[in-house]
Amino acid sequence: LTDNWFLIDNNPNPCTINRSTKQGDPLADMLFNFFMVKVLSSIRQSLSVAGFGVPYTPVATALLGDLPPGTLSDLSYVDDGAFPHEVLDNNTVVSDIQGITKIVARALFAHALHPNFKKGKSEAMISLRGPDSKEIRHKIFVTCNSTIDVELYPEYSVSLHIVPTYKHLGNYITPSLKSNAHIQHRIAQGQSALAP
């Protein structure tokens, strides 16, 4: 993994890498995947211990067979993750979002990864129904200006943006789980590709 080199067109001198893997090397992808499995395992375990996630009862399939009921704590693909959670009392949604964010961020920090909390990067999406939903929605989206402050460590806090739709792995996700936003986005992409 040291003293690798590669060539760039129109450059007579080889480019050298003194540490890590060279760009495009499949070994880099394999090492990253092994690393992310460790990070995600740590996140899943911490979320489970804290009681976060969405309970599910699986349907038997020919591919997977019979699976036991469990709790879904993340929907992850390589370094892109979503962490679903079901609240039973709308009054706990803010503290639950803070708890989930703290667990995920601390696990990433523990593995020398720094999450990006800028708008459009790390965000939360909520769907509130039932008692107190209007009041909590007003508090989050109007009073708090669509952000929730999260104290990750003493003297270190971040602002997590709350969004009406979320882009995950190229798909637009909405609280209602309808595909309208994603379809509209794809139509706009197609129209811009065909524009003169």
Describe the structure in your own words.
This protein is of the alpha+beta class. It has four helices and eleven strands. The strands form five sheets. A three-stranded mixed beta sheet has the order 7-9-8, with helices on one face. Helix 1 (26-50) packs across helix 2. It is globular and about 70 Å long. The mean pLDDT is 84.
Helix and strand layout, with pairings?
Blueprint: E1 4-6, E2 15-17, H1 26-50, E3 54-56, E4 70-72, E5 75-77, E6 80-82, H2 93-110, E7 123-124, H3 133-143, E8 147-153, E9 156-162, E10 166-168, E11 171-173, H4 180-194
Parallel strand pairs: 7-9
Antiparallel strand pairs: 1-2, 3-4, 5-6, 8-9, 10-11
Helix pairs in contact: 1-2
- Strand percentage: 15-25%
Low-confidence runs:
none
End-to-end distance: 47 Å
The residue-averaged pLDDT reads 84
Name the shape in a single word: globular
Total DSSP E strands: 11
Radius of gyration: 21 Å
Helix and strand element order: EEHEEEEHEHEEEEH
Strand count, sense and barrel status of the largest sheet are: 3 strands, mixed
SS-based class: alpha+beta
Helix count from the secondary structure assignment: 4
Q: What portion of residues is helical?
A: 25-40%
Strand order of the largest sheet: 7-9-8
